[in-house]
Amino acid sequence: WETPADDRYRDILYQQAERIAKITINRPEVRNAFRPQTVRELIDAFHRAHMDPEIGVIVLTGAGDLAFCSGGDQRIRGDAGYQDESGVEHLNVLELQRQIRTLPKPVVAMVAGYAIGGGHVLHLICDLTIAADNARFGQTGPRVGSFDGGFGAGLMARTVGLKKAKEIWFLCRQYDAQAALDMGLVNTVVPLRELESETVDWCRQMNRLSPTALRVLKSSFNADTDGLAGIQELAGNATALFYTTEEGQEGRNAFLEKREPDFHRFPRRP
Ligand code: 2NE
């Protein structure tokens, strides 16, 4: 990676190269479990990659080979939720899920080792998942007194089918990389030593394609699931494209020139 990880973060790393941003959860001592600080930093890093016009694709991963992410840090889970440094209980991981889902660039989960609990939902939310052959997937919520009934349940069902999604949540089993591939939970499985190069290869391929086409497609995939918010995303892309047309600009120009707009010259296409 071209840039050294910068030191503004404590729990994550942010690097970039070749129009790819790599965001790494860096808490290997707890299998990359997240705490409020981690989620806060992830939200900042994704916002940074979102806003950077040099970045076309974002990779989310975990430090080391043992885990992508093991979900919420159970050590700081108080009686009413996950506690931050000042003892306030909040996690905001649902906000992070929505952010990954709606930001207009492909997000790729690069998974080595465990993607478990809330960490499993994070890979699910990403647009694509490249798994190493040592990857293991699963939910633990009903075992540890938790659940994710939002995208964690609904998007899971849309991804692997309703029966399989219920099995994943109701039995809390673990699935190896091949089983995950068979049920459509990941896009490909590669030997661990090839994980990074394969992921970069997929990112390079996407970076060679039309960013606008990828952007509109991503919002299209969300549109029906996300109801009006999904339509808003898709329609926002239509508005942005309309702004680039002479017809859109005529409205602005007429306002600034204090005259009536002249839309007659624009075709009423069939
Ligand atoms: C991930 C897994 C399967 C790994 O097992 P293994 O055998 O490879 O490692 P081990 O020994 O269990 O873990 C290594 C160290 O990491 C800590 C462990 O406690 C252990 O620490 P030490 O004993 O060495 O001090 N660790 C691992 N995961 C942790 C976690 N999530 N929080 C704090 N410490 C953790 C195995 O470790 C495992 O099953 N982990 C727990 C997974 C889990 O239940 N996560 C929470 C699910 S709920 C959730 O994420 C959630 C939600 O449902 C809704 C909203 C938001 C979050």
Question: What this model shows, in words?
Answer:
The protein has 270 residues and is α/β, with parallel strands linked by helices. It is 44% helix and 17% strand. The chain is built from eleven helices and twelve strands. A hairpin with a 2-residue loop joins strand 5 (77-78) and strand 6 (81-82). The longest helix has 17 residues, at 227-243. The chain is globular. The relative contact order is 0.10.
How many helices? The count is: 11
Shape: globular
* Main sheet specs: 6 strands, mixed
Helix content: 40-55%
Would you kindly provide a brief summary of this structure?
The protein is α/β, with parallel strands linked by helices and 270 residues long.
Question: Topology, pairings included?
Answer:
Blueprint lengths: L11 E6 L2 E6 L10 H16 L5 E6 L4 E3 L7 E2 L2 E2 L10 H10 L4 E5 L2 E3 L1 H8 L2 E5 L3 E3 L2 H4 L6 H10 L1 H10 L3 E2 H6 L5 E3 L4 H13 L3 H13 L3 H17 L2 H11 L14
The chain binds Salicylyl CoA (2NE).
Salicylyl CoA binds next to strand 8 and helix 4.
Quick tags:
single chain, 270 residues, six-stranded mixed beta sheet, four-stranded mixed beta sheet, 11 helices, 17% strand, binds Salicylyl CoA
